[in-house]
Amino acid sequence: MKKSVFVLVCLFIIGFSLKGSTGLAKESLSKITPIFNNMPNEGCGDSVSRHSILLARAASQMDTGKIVLVIAADKPLETDMDQDHKVAGEDEFEEDLFDEYDDEAQAVQMVADPLYYFNHAMYSFNDFLYFYALKPVAQGYKFIVPSPVRSGVNNFFFNLLFPVRFINTIFQGKLVAASDEMGIFLTNSTVGILGFNQFAQKHLNMKTTNEDLGQTLGSYAIGDGFYLVLPILGPSTLRDAIGRAGDYFITPVNYVEPWELALGVNITDKINRTSFRLGDYEALKDASLDPYVAIKNAYIQNRRSEIEK
Hints:
The chain is mainly α and about 300 residues long. It has helices at about 1-35, 45-50, 80-110, 115-145, 145-160, 160-170, 175-190, 200-205, 215-220, 240-250, 260-275, 280-285, 290-309; strands at about 55-60, 65-70, 225-230, 235. The protein is globular.
């Protein structure tokens, strides 16, 4: 008798709990449903619009005490064939994208960096020199010297580098480009008043090149060697460092006497060129997780692009 009463009490408690739980769930779901029904689609982006946005709706069945969740889509479900076709297309796009990135990354990684600690020390030194010496002076120079004058000075120094461009275009077998360089130099040195005005490029539509011995060596399939950061001069490679040494002997400014005057001319050229690129170095550093690696990769990719032209 006691056991029967105990069983009846337990059944009554369980039944009451189920009924209360069902009512509580129904009330909660009735509050959640409008949120899902009114969920906005804007701002989801193209990637979301390509897929169904699932809306959760609740319905309760009071007679059975069960809660049924109905998941509805805002558009018909795709067949397995459609999904497979889409996934295959997306996979091909991603593979092509990553293959292209991997090729560029591998090309940069092929340049060894055995002098990493020395290079990083030189990078830190150049970075300090830029922010505490070159940049403040270039900012003051830019503030004082008008832009047309600075452009004229830049054109003058570019015209002085004619021997470097002319000889290296010949070494690379670009005879047409070499003749153009000669014509540009003669025109700008006379009509352009010592090169301060690029008359040949502006009015005669003549195109100049920017060749150097490092590119010439690269055109003969001579590899980069290893990565190298030079004090003051910045990023380079073994091949380009040798090229710089060779170009030194065909750069007219280096023959100015006394050497203090030649040094002053080179410093003026450096400050003038920096005044046009203030903020570029800072932007590169801010946009990269590791500025040392970013500068290395950018330099190597840029040099290879110039050699391929």
